[in-house]
Amino acid sequence: VQLQASGGGLVQTGDSLILSCAASGRTFSIYTLGWFRRAPGMDREFVAAAPAADWTGAGLKYADSVKGRFTVFRDDAESTVYLQMNSLKSEDTAVYYCAAGRRVGLLQNWFEYDYWGQGTQVTVSS
Description:
The protein is mainly β. Helix content is 0%, strand content 46%.
């Protein structure tokens, strides 16, 4: 699976932005999809996860820092996962990465994912 993230940019505090991650391949629905971010000088941080079609548990998972502001959703027909980001804060500034993992569940750890996109920069200016 190859992932291509896009949609990053420079915005102001309080603005909204939507990131996209398009995947190659025809078996998109079997993958758990995740978004991570890495701020300068910081470790990679989990942001959100959308489970694969065969997951029967709770629907979505978010980091506490983005809960209520970010929404992850997937379009399996288009092999794309999105991250809608509202009420952006300066601390949301980071490179955002999408990832796909074959493990079942709401994967929150970077090592549980098998494939990664190249990252897209989001800068929130105050």
